[in-house]
Specification:
It holds the Pfam family NFACT_N. The chain has about 270 residues and is of the alpha+beta class. The protein has two domains: about 5-140, ibrinogen binding protein from staphylococcus aureus domain (ibrinogen binding protein from staphylococcus aureus fold), CATH 2.30.310; about 190-270. The chain is built from four helices and eleven strands, in the order ββββαβββββααββα.
Length: about 270
């Protein structure tokens, strides 16, 4: 194949057995040489690459003025029909793209379809020229093309690794921050156990005094087991309230036990 896609935004071009990588990754586009693992793609864009560029004869290659756009004009002779077409490689910062057109610039397919823009890119639309791009005026003389394209890949690969490392470190820092917030937000076991103990005490006092309490009584004072006055303001009957206090006390005790496990688990993750 003259042109084939080997990764989501990466194409491989072959010229007399010399292979070049056209990397259209947004913000990191470049041309270089490297041996990359190839994926199989069956999207409409990839079918059109095969149709219009297998065994193609390159008529012209040009760099568009005031833009980082490389255009190949090709011709393919089939058994019953010949095709003349173009392929535009747009190495333009955030707006990278690969666009296949006929000889009159009617779009056949594109790597990225763009609808909401001053420049629509989709099939059956005439390709509009990109606005002029500010070019880097510092030109580098290439003395050895093989070394240049190899080094280009090494630099790009190193930058990608650095970006991934920065992203991963930021994700780890965020995760640690979230874990710390969760750790600090956990209730104290002692507070929960004190609440449970207080509920059990109230339940015990109620059960000890059920014989003198009326079912309808809701607000009253009783002596605890040390002779101290304890005020009660209930929503249910004394007996129902006592059972509810026991039930809630058990829940708080269980929560306290679970908190200890959660805290130990968070400590392990933070370590």
């Amino acid at each position: 194949d003259f042109i084939k896609r080997v990764n989501d935004n990466i194409l491989e071009l072959s010229f007399n057995r010399e292979r070049f990588i056209f990397d259209l990754t947004r913000g990191m586009s470049a041309i270089y040489t490297a041996k990359l693992m190839s994926k199989n793609y069956n999207a409409p864009f990839d079918f059109m690459l095969k149709k219009y560029f297998n065994n193609a004869f390159i008529k012209e290659v040009k760099l568009l003025q005031d833009n980082r756009i490389l255009c190949f004009s090709v011709k393919v002779d089939k058994a019953y029909k010949s095709y003349e077409s173009k392929i535009y490689f747009e190495f333009t910062g955030k707006n990278t793209n690969v666009i296949i057109t006929d000889e009159k610039d009617l779009i056949i397919e594109a790597l990225r379809h763009i609808d909401k823009s001053y420049r629509v890119v989709k099939p059956n639309v005439i390709l509009e020229a990109l606005k002029p791009y500010k070019m880097d005026e510092k030109f580098e003389e290439i003395k050895n093309f093989k070394d240049y394209f190899t080094q280009k890949f090494e630099i790009l690969h190193a930058n990608k690794i650095k970006q991934i490392q920065t992203l991963k470190l930021a994700q780890i820092d965020k995760k640690i921050e979230n874990l710390k917030e969760l750790y600090l937000a956990l209730d104290k076991e002692e507070v929960l156990l004190d609440q449970a103990l207080n509920l059990r005490k109230q339940a015990d006092i109620l059960f000890a005094n059920l014989s003198i309490l009326k079912e309808y009584e809701r607000e009253f004072e009783l002596d605890d087991f040390e002779g101290k006055k304890v005020k009660f303001k209930l929503d249910l009957s004394p007996k129902e309230s006592a059972n509810l206090f026991y039930k809630n006390a058990k829940k708080l005790e269980q929560k306290a036990r679970n908190l200890n496990l959660q805290r130990e688990n968070l400590k392990e993750k933070l370590d």
